[in-house]
Amino acid sequence: MGQIISTQEAARLAARFLRSAQTSSSPEMKLLENLTEEHDFGWVFFWGPVDENVRVGGNAPLIVSRSDGSVHAAGTAHPIERYIESFARVRRTYPFAEARYVVTLDGWLPGLQKISLTKLIRHFSTLDLARAKQFTDDILANRKGELTFQTQEQADEFLSQAKSLGSLGYITKRWE
């Protein structure tokens, strides 16, 4: 991770980014400093033409990372809040961050139904029989195993069934 930058340095980087994107036929652009937003991750800079009588389209806000000074163009196809939220979660504006639900099996109770757990793992994942069996064996050897689901409901259902077979575990939400 780089050195944390100041607001003034972030504005300088955003302005330089704007200048580098300009062509000889485009109107001169400036940062609209009164619209700048500060966030934990950095700043959102809005911009427009120096001549306020000129109208432009596609002037997506710029996001400058506080940690390394990198400049990221947002988009204009969706509300700016989606781009900001995505950047805050995964440090990219697009494609948008998506939640994933990770079930971690981290132990077992006496009487664990090993074969049924292996079948359950196969049913809820793309693991073949050998890998699903190894997953179950890892749990029995007190090594954690993780399966990732696209929805909270899928993760809840898998964990509920795994617990009914004697496995211990929990769910965490990750952003990708």
What does this structure look like?
The protein has 176 residues and is α+β, with helices and mostly antiparallel strands. Helix content is 35%, strand content 25%. It has a four-stranded antiparallel sheet, with helices on both faces.
Question: What's the topology here?
Answer:
Blueprint: H1 7-21, E1 29-31, E2 37-39, E3 42-45, E4 47-49, E5 62-65, E6 71-73, H2 80-90, E7 99-108, H3 114-124, H4 129-140, E8 145-149, H5 152-164, E9 167-175
Antiparallel strand pairs: 1-4, 2-3, 3-5, 5-6, 7-8, 7-9
Helix pairs in contact: 3-4, 3-5
- The helix/strand series, from N terminus to C terminus, equals HEEEEEEHEHHEHE
Characterize the biggest β-sheet. 4 strands, antiparallel
Query: How many helical stretches?
Result: 5
Helical percentage: 25-40%
Q: What's the count of strands?
A: 9
DSSP strand (E) fraction?
Answer: 25-35%
Describe this protein with a few key phrases:
25% strand, 2 domains, Ribosomal Protein L30, Chain: A, 4-stranded antiparallel β-sheet, 3-stranded antiparallel β-sheet, 176 residues, single chain, alpha+beta
